Amino acid sequence: MFYKPKGVLSSASDDKGRTVVTDYFKDVEQRVYPVGRLDRSTTGLVFLTTNGPLGYRMLHPQYHVEKEYQVVVNGPLTQDHVASFAQGILIDQDRPCAPAHLVIEASGPQESRARLTIREGKFHQVKKMFLSVGVKVTQLHRLRMGHLVLDQDLAPGAYRPLKPEELEQLKHYL
């Protein structure tokens, strides 16, 4: 479990020399691979593994692994947005997203906070979903991936091995 800080790429390597999540794992005996992507400005949970089939199943849409995010946007959110997300948002004109669960935590004219749970992971999906309803994501933080919840004791850039109970929960995806 890794707490990805802002500015770090969610990949195993980068041909431009930018910092990637695996740079934090130089002291680990086996090479680990990040499961799923977060863009450079997004923070939060990144799961790393040596188990390819597990990584594949956690990402493939047919397995419906939930990903939960804390989102801050630059405008108001309403119950109409909640309903739109529940029906499935259209992004890129003709690409529908699967229904998503939006919970508004605070809504104001200049800034709103919400939690969003999705079961797929299209390119910049969360940001595009909010843009399609008229607001821009200003902060995005992944809290959860399947049963794995970001450890609140981890600081950005820190990681820890999974606990036995977390490993046991991952067997659900195999």
Shape: globular
Task: Supply the number of helical segments.
Answer: 4
- How far apart are the first and last residues' alpha carbons, in Å? 18 Å
Say how many strands there are: 10
Q: What amount of the residues lies in strands?
A: 25-35%
How much helix is in the residues? 10-25%
- Derived structural class: alpha+beta
The low-confidence parts are: none
Secondary-structure element order, N to C:
EEEHEHEEEEHEEH
Main sheet properties: 8 strands, mixed
Could you tell me the mean pLDDT? Answer: 92
Cα-atom Rg, whole angstroms? 16 Å
The gist of it:
The chain is α+β, with helices and mostly antiparallel strands and 174 residues long.
Highlighted features:
174 residues; alpha+beta; eight-stranded mixed β-sheet; 4 helices; 10 strands; 28% strand; globular
3D structure, described in words:
- The protein has 174 residues and is α+β, with helices and mostly antiparallel strands.
- The protein has four helices and ten strands; from the N terminus they run βββαβαββββαββα.
- Strands 1, 2, 3, 4, 7, 8, 9 and 10 form an eight-stranded mixed sheet that branches.
- The longest helix has 9 residues.
- 29% of the residues are buried.
Topology:
Elements: E1 2-4, E2 33-35, E3 43-49, H1 52-59, E4 67-73, H2 79-87, E5 90-91, E6 95-96, E7 101-107, E8 112-118, H3 125-132, E9 137-145, E10 148-149, H4 164-170
Parallel strand pairs: 3-9
Antiparallel strand pairs: 1-3, 2-3, 4-8, 4-9, 5-6, 7-8, 9-10
